[in-house]
User: Fold this.
Amino acid sequence: MKGDKKVLTVLNELLADELTAISQYMVHSEMCDNWGYEKLHKAIEGQAVDEMHHAEWLIQRILFLEGQPVVSKLNPIHIGKDVLQIIGTDQDAELAAVKAYNAAIRLGHEVDDQATVELLTRILAMEEGHVDWAETQRDQIAQMGLPSYLSNQAKPVSG
Ligand SMILES: [Fe+2]
Ligand SMILES: [Fe+2]
Assistant:
């Protein structure tokens, strides 16, 4: 089924955002693992997997609309130097994603492509969940202080 040209362009822009997020989060997740922050490692790894599903769903939709998925384009990647920066840069990416999905949903309505709207709305709800996760981490850091927060993220010492 032939899709609207503008919609296909926007779907490819969103795909580039998702592929960028996957790379950024994989590095952040492994940095946390390297520092022994097991819970943070798992949480950020889980977000990278969510973004991979988003990329898959966007590719499926682009192909269905007879477009060409572009997987060779990445946006600038922002790697944090410490846990606070990691959470902050990922939160920035998520806030940008919420904006981009809302704009894309508006376009979907304009060209009357409700199935694309439905897909983008499903992804948007997950991105809002990612923003919420980052907000929760920052609240906890503000309330309990960074050292206590970080000791909660570490793997329990066994033995
Ligand atoms: Fe995503
Ligand atoms: Fe996300």
Notes: The pocket of fe (ii) ion (ligand 1) is lined by residues 18, 21, 51, 54, 97, 123, 127 (CB under 6 Å). The radius of gyration is 17 Å. Residues 34 and 53 are 25 Å apart (CA to CA).
